[in-house]
Amino acid sequence: MTEMDTLKKQLNQFDEEYESKLDAIRLTEIAVKKAMQRINEDKQRLYESIGIEDSSTSEAASEALEILKKNFDSYNIPNTKDEIELQIAHEQGKLDALYSEGEKKVSFSVQFFVHIVIFHFFFFLLNFLF
Fold first, then answer.
1. Rounded Cα gap, residues 89 and 83, in angstroms
2. Domain extents in the chain
3. What's the pLDDT tens digit per position in 40-59?
């Protein structure tokens, strides 16, 4: 057997060991995630059974609301009923002005704004949840 064959054999052995250890690490990672999930579920059930609110849940909800508020502010998305009504009235005023000039395509503007607001809301909500 030549030195090159010996080196190839050692390299193949190393690759096999590496893949084996990598698989073991992945399986361990999955097991740890599942265990953490079970622990959190059990903890939540325990809190519910004794009637105590899980502070981490309420803290997470408060944190999520803060993140949403900051994102709404940074993207200038109205985040209160009054701000939304004001923005819709503003858009409706623009729509009325353009409609009177015969611009029928402007109805898209209000619909577009509403869709953008809804999209941003769900985008930030999904980012927080996942």
1. 10
2. 1-52, 57-130
3. 888 888 877 777 666 666 67
